[in-house]
Write a structure and sequence with these properties.
This protein has 68 residues and is an alpha+beta fold. A hairpin with a 5-residue loop joins strand 2 and strand 3. The two termini are 18 Å apart.
Length: 68
Amino acid sequence: HIDMNHAAPEVAALRMLWPRMAKAGIVLLDDYAYFGYRPQKEAMDALGQELGFAVASLPTGQGLIIRT
């Protein structure tokens, strides 16, 4: 669960954790699709393009990543 309310440390945390994550590992992004947190969505979408993952937007406004 990543919830830092700021795009830069969230990206840095996931970038550090990604190589250590097991296949089928799950990350929950707290502020992914909430109104007013657009920078987090844009930053995570860009990181997903770079690292090869997609973020599923949940009805709660959170984002879900499952490592494949």
